[in-house]
Amino acid sequence: MKIEKCMTWNPFFLKSGTPIREAAKVFIARKFGALPILDKRDKLIGIVTIMDLLKVFLPDFVPLVDIDFIKDYGALEIQEKDIEKIESLVVDDIMTKKVISVDSDCPLTRAISLMKKHDFRHLPVVKEGKLIGMVSSTDICRRFLEIWEAKNKKD
């Protein structure tokens, strides 16, 4: 089975330079988990996930400490100065720049392997270097379950 059988065609995307605030609005309104980022020539240059966006709100030192030892999370609350910093960010500042994508004829099992290996939940799908779709782990799982269910009905 090929990825094109379960991907979302003509996906929503953001352009390089889009403010974080605009990206956040898209994530909230459309309930996306990831958005591809395209340059002026519509070349795929990055991907932003909802987790990338959430990390903006965490202090820089959080990944360095074992949070189980923190007793007072009030010290981690967002401050006024943090909001000003966040307001100045664009998607390019938080996106993953080394984008792993798959061609539209990629087998589902290869896509799952890539997702597992790189701990991704979404993959951009390209054809001849152009973004044509997005696929999530949920899309692939749904497709496998549909195939399984159809096979069980035959038995």
Description:
It is a single chain. The chain is of the alpha/beta class and 155 residues long. Helices cover 37% and strands 19% of the residues. It has helices spanning 20-30, 50-55, 80-87, 91-94, 108-118, 137-154; strands at 8-9, 14-15, 34-38, 44-49, 102-103, 122-127, 130-136. The relative contact order is 0.22. The model has no long low-confidence stretch (mean pLDDT 87).
Q: What is the CATH homology-level superfamily? A: CBS-domain
CATH class: Alpha Beta
Uncertain segments are none
- Overall structural class, as computed from helix and strand content, comes to alpha/beta
| Largest beta-sheet characterization | 4 strands, mixed
Beta strand %: 15-25%
The number of helical runs is 6
SSE sequence, one letter per element: EEHEEHHHEHEEH
CATH 2nd-level architecture: Roll
Notable traits:
CBS-domain, alpha/beta
Short recap of the structure:
This protein has 155 residues and is α/β, with parallel strands linked by helices. The chain has helices at residues 20-30, 50-55, 80-87, 91-94, 108-118, 137-154, and strands at 8-9, 14-15, 34-38, 44-49, 102-103, 122-127, 130-136.
List the helices and strands and how they pair.
Layout: E1 8-9, E2 14-15, H1 20-30, E3 34-38, E4 44-49, H2 50-55, H3 80-87, H4 91-94, E5 102-103, H5 108-118, E6 122-127, E7 130-136, H6 137-154
Parallel strand pairs: 2-3, 5-6
Antiparallel strand pairs: 1-7, 3-4, 6-7
